[in-house]
Amino acid sequence: MNARRKIRVVIVDDSALIRGLLSDIINSQEDMEVVGVAADPLAAREMIRSRHPDVITLDVEMPRMDGIEFLEKLMRLRPMPVLMVSSLTEKGSETTLRALELGAVDFVTKPKLDIARGMHEYIEEIAEKIRVAARVRVRRLDPTPARRLPRLGSRRASTEKLVAIGASTGGTEAIKDVLVALPPDCPGILIAQHMPEGFTKSFSQRLDSLSRLRVKEAEDGERILPGHAYVAPGHSHLLLKRSGANYMAVLSQSAPVNRGRRWMSCSSPSRRTRVRTQSVSS
Fold it and tell me: What are the chain's domains?
């Protein structure tokens, strides 16, 4: 993308308030501009053809066609970077995870209360997510659905070996691809994904349904077992404590790093190593 050219954004949301707030946030940035707003996907379809946006912000629940159905059609016919706009609810989190699987780059969480104030508190985060999305090369959606593979019993009794995976924006699909390909008797896996608290449980459940591993949110004090994958809850740092030949999960409420708790730390009686999670790309 030409560095002098502004990022062109189309906003698709049935809420006039959200359309206005996002427009104000985006247009306040020197490197981006709103080139169109639409109240539903059908209106957005023609706007995308004529305005050629670099990024689309897309609501989940809308009239005439919901955001997930529209996203699936878009990624098959004309893939482009999409930033979802979602409410932080259990139903909303499951829907948002489906959107990430279909190819959405990331999502923006709608505040539950005082939407105007809540959205403006995250101006920097929203703008940065749009910048990241504009740089992503989106792949055409593979029409072949993900298939759950059969599970086998674990043959390992020790957790001496571990695998740690850290991912930031856009990493959910890459993590899914990695886990689906792993055998059921692999070493225990710990996952730190840049994701709010209300989404990590649904993310874990989705991965569990697709892979041969047992995938769950990590719990404080539990043993890390082979054939299992543990997702750090969105509210905590995930630490590892050595106990003989095993590792135990420890959840920490220490200060956030870069606006979130997504550090991994490993400790033993003889040494302590801290590892900052790095982005996983697909």
Answer: 7-135 (3.40.50.2300), 162-276 (3.40.50.180)
